[in-house]
TrEMBL record:
<feature type="active site" description="Amidino-cysteine intermediate">
    <location>
        <position position="396"/>
    </location>
</feature>
<keyword id="KW-0378">Hydrolase</keyword>
<protein>
    <recommendedName>
        <fullName>Arginine deiminase</fullName>
        <ecNumber>3.5.3.6</ecNumber>
    </recommendedName>
</protein>
<comment type="pathway">
    <text>Amino-acid degradation; L-arginine degradation via ADI pathway; carbamoyl phosphate from L-arginine: step 1/2.</text>
</comment>
<dbReference type="GO" id="GO:0019546">
    <property type="term" value="P:L-arginine deiminase pathway"/>
</dbReference>
<dbReference type="InterPro" id="IPR003876">
    <property type="entry name" value="Arg_deiminase"/>
</dbReference>
<keyword id="KW-0056">Arginine metabolism</keyword>
<keyword id="KW-0963">Cytoplasm</keyword>
<dbReference type="GO" id="GO:0005737">
    <property type="term" value="C:cytoplasm"/>
</dbReference>
<dbReference type="Pfam" id="PF02274">
    <property type="entry name" value="ADI"/>
</dbReference>
<comment type="similarity">
    <text>Belongs to the arginine deiminase family.</text>
</comment>
<dbReference type="GO" id="GO:0016990">
    <property type="term" value="F:arginine deiminase activity"/>
</dbReference>
Amino acid sequence: MSKLYVGSEVGQLKRVLLHRPERALTHLTPSNCHELLFDDVLAVEAAGDEHDVFANTLTSQGVEVLLLHDLLVETLDVPAAREWLLKTQISDFRYGPMFARDFRNYLAEMDNEHLACVLLGGLAYSELPFKSASMLPKLHRSLDFAIEPLPNHLFTRDTSCWVYGGVSLNPMMMPARQRETNHLRAIYHWHPIFAGQDFIKYFGNEDLHYDNANIEGGDVLVIGNGAVLIAMSERTTSQGVENLAAQLFKHQQAKQVIVTELPKNRACMHLDTVMTHIDVDTFSLYPEIVRKDMNTWCLTSKKDGQMQIDQTNDLMGSIEKALGLDALKIITTGGDSYEAEREQWNDANNVLTVKPGVVIGYERNVYTNEKYDKAGITVLPVPGNELGRGRGGARCMSCPIEREGI
């Protein structure tokens, strides 16, 4: 059995986790989409078709594609996993003990496929056939969600991220995404692909409230050579970064963690929306955000189990040093300043590297794709007219679980 290990951002990608958008998108409406972290309502079938092109492009490059929905269905086939997920996702604290019990009893009767659809895609109070003595349903309108849909599961990058020989099960910042992590916790614990495999769970795998320690995978770049680059952003806090770094050092999985600070705004929600690693010595970035004078720190391990934190404020220099390079090649977002801003908004910098110098990106970002091409980077274009409305590109929509180092 091949090893669960992600050694870089650019080494040959071997296995990846995706989530095809489905039922959750049918529940997106103009009145709820912002609360569910979408800027717009997507055409559901077209988004699914675009995602299929993305998955097929990966397969054609020799990458094994795992689908979250299928993994969840197969995980629910394990009685202990089913019981844990029902108890965790339909908890007494979320619903109150009476309604939670009635709701769990109803869901427990569903087959695995139906239950997975509901857990991922949501369920309205009007769809519940049982009566409960609880006050909760009487306080809701029929179209309110008893289980909120999870349309952001599309972005498998954020919920969990593999760093060298282990995985972080990320405590997410936004309430609309926090339940996603439990699906991954169950899959990594019980699904036959992962159960009994030798990998570390760095962070986020306990039944705890992680308070201010938030981290999302879009802010974590495994740049290779024992280094990890993490950004503090709208959704990743210094507390989250320090907790993950401490675990990486404790398990001797990283030599250093380079940390930088992004502005906290929607246009650069995660580091990978403004910067990705596309070849051993090459990065794509949006220069309006990724600047020379960004606050930057280097975290390293000390002998007493503590961390050394040095402020360098030299992001590129820190990366060059970590990778043993004289100079990085930088490709900036294409077009004039209007076009570059538009293409960054449509994830021109959020490409997924399949192997050194070969990336998957949205075909609509013509100016940036042209720059990649001129710099010797091969772009495998995929359609993103619908998928891009979720503000995430090929890197956001993929969670590598097996990738070679550099």
